[in-house]
Amino acid sequence: MGIKKWLAKDTTKPSDYAHSYAAGLIKLIEYLAASVVAFSGKRSIISGASVGNTMFETTHAMQMAGFDRLHADVLEPNIEELKAEADPELVSNTFRVTTAVLLSFSESTAYSYMKPENARLFFSALLRSIADLSRIKLFHPPWDHLNSPPWR
How far apart, in whole angstroms, are the C-alpha atoms of residue 142 and residue 83? Predict the structure, then answer.
């Protein structure tokens, strides 16, 4: 059975396909966000020193600058472990940005390969599905202590 027939068996409308696609997209978003956070680092600072964000091209360069990797296992990052270990703001910001990037890519791909009306219906349904799945699965740590969603 080809991919078109496999997708068509349970997805007769763009909104059906969007809902099926959303479940996998949430997993991809979590994995990508976990990977970004896993490659983050931290270091102690002197009291009163200015704090800023710094970017490095490699983990080695980051470690040479005195930073420690945030997560030891960068090959198999686990979003649940990172939620417990990492700065909640870093995790929520990374999740938000990763979601935006992958939704933008999904929208662009839909408009490239679908009829315009189907792409519009697909993307509209995808946004609703992602929002619904996010409420169910993601409104637990790290945001519970903030008493508000990460996109306030």
Answer: 6
